[in-house]
Each structure stands twice: as C-alpha cells, then as structure tokens.
Known about the structure:
- This protein is α+β, with helices and mostly antiparallel strands.
- It folds into 2 domains: 91 residues, no CATH class; 234 residues, no CATH class.
- It is built from 4 helices and 17 strands.
- Strands 1, 2, 4, 7, 8, 9, 11, 14 and 15 form a 9-stranded mixed sheet that branches. The chain has a 6-stranded antiparallel sheet with strand order 6-5-10-3-12-13.
- The longest helix is centred in the last third of the chain and has 24 residues.
- The chain is globular, with a radius of gyration of 27 Å.
Amino acid sequence: MDGLQTTTRLWTLCVSAMRAAVPAGRLLVSLVAATVWLAMPARADPFFFSTGTPDGLLGAFSQPASAVSLETETADDFILDETTSIAQATITGLIPSGTPLADISNVEVEVYHVFPKDSDDPSGNVPSRANSPADVEIDTATRDGSLGTLTFSTSLLDESFSILNSVADGINPAPDNVTLGEGPASGEVVQITITFTPPIVLPADHYFFRPEVQVADGDFLFLSAPKPIAAPGTPFTGDLQAWIRNSDLKPDWLRIGTDIIGGSPVQTFNMSLSLTGETVAQAATPTATPDPPSNNDGGGCSIGAVSSANRGTLWLLLVPAAVLWWTRRRRG
C-alpha cells in the first residue's frame, strides 16, 4: 500500500471514530486539531557529549586578563551531527587551595569554527594552524555571566588534587613556542555547571568550545581529560587535541601538546568538559534566504517552512476538514 492510500485510510478511520465520539458541532474543530498535530515535526532527541573526568596530566590557563597575567584561552573540540540546541555545559578546573567558591565571579563561553573558517591567512607566527580554532569566535554563540546570557553554579569535587604539568605563561610564537610546560601544580578541583540563557543553537559542524573563568585573587587551570576519550566520556571520530593562546598570540593558536610541551613521543590532550541539549527539528530551524532572495517579499529567513516533499501529504490532511466544512455549510 502506497503513502497516499495509507494516509487516506487513516483519515477515513479517524473521521469515522470522531463522528461516533464527538458531538456534531465540534467535529470540525477536532479535525483541524488532529491535522495540526499530525503536521508537527518529530520530537527532538536528547544530546549529550563528554570528554570524561580529569586525568591529572595537565592544567591550562583559561581566564580573562588580570593585574598579573594576560588573557589566556584554552579550547577543545566537539562535533554536531545535526542542528543542536545546547542548554548546559560543565567544565572542571583547578583553583588555589583554600579559595572560596564565591571567588569564582564570572564565566564566559565562546564557540569557534575550525580553521580556516572565520580566519585570515596564516601569519607564520605558529608552527601550524591546521585543525586549530578559527581566528574569531561565532558571535551568536558567545555567552557571558556578566551580561546575563548564562548562569553558573560551582561545586567542590576534591580538596587536594595534583597535576603533572601546567601551561600558564609560556605561550610564545614560533620558534620559541616549545617551553615544556611549567611543571606540576596542586589545588582544589571545582566543577562549574553553566546554563545558557538562551541556549546556543548550532548547525551540524565541527567546533571548539572555549570557557574563561574569573577567580578573584587566583587562577583557573582548565583540567585535561583522557585522549582518546574513554568511558564515561563519549568518543567520536575526528577528535582533535586542545589548543591555547594568549592576547599576545592572537589571532593564532598553539597546540598544547605538540607545540608547547613537545617531547617524543608527543602527548596530546583533551580538556574536561560536557555539553547537554537536544537536536532541533529541521522544520523549526531558521533557514537563511538564498542570495538573491527567492521569496517574494525578500524577508531574511523562513521559519518552519514545509518542504515540497511534504506538501502533498499536508494538503491531503487538510482536504477532509475542508469537505466537511463545505457539506455542513450547504446543509445550513
């Protein structure tokens, strides 16, 4: 049985059932409500991504500028297979021992495409830009607690935790980029749960996630997670290593493992983060108008447009309601 016959039979059964169960004066309303319900897009699927728990190998600055240090950004990658609304994130980091959680005063999040998107030609100041974050962030995805576009809460996971190496100040252009890191560090492990207001909506693509955490009279070291990703993380094909830069190096980035720590064999790193949200039904996703505009009024976007493949089915859903309306009108 083809789709047309199936839909027709379903509507016949539906109308018969409603005639028996619904008073005549309300039948048209019931048919229209059923039509709208059947035409709605499929329910969104949950989305979750995690790199796993801290592995104790590395901590890297990811914080705004202070009186004693430059702004420093650490970013790690994730992939979306379809348009996704990201509502929450968690990051895990190291702060100085004895630091009150209330001293974590702000969090900012940026999302980057993978180079060369949103970027100029390589400057030659770093060994490579292949698979790095882009020069500049995706503006529509930036969220900042100080601006009210995210809220955050903090929890103490471990009062005493040590890491084998750290990257804080030794972030230099080539050929002086290999500094081997700045050695072990210890402190308290905190997890920061971030809620985006509004959620971050991104189409399917490969991205980098960059948080910055402001700690009064202290530093925030973004902690590494296993690479390759292991349970309870969520592995994915194409996982890239973490990158870092400071305000002196912008717009370029350095690979934390390959370019800064070095060694043989080179050890690469992920950073400890998770993302939570849901996929976005295609019919509810804003679609950019082609250039030149293909719609008559030249509007900037169309939301919830019905594809040509579904128009025949939609008309078939509407026809029974129209016929019933016309029949009742003639009888009246």
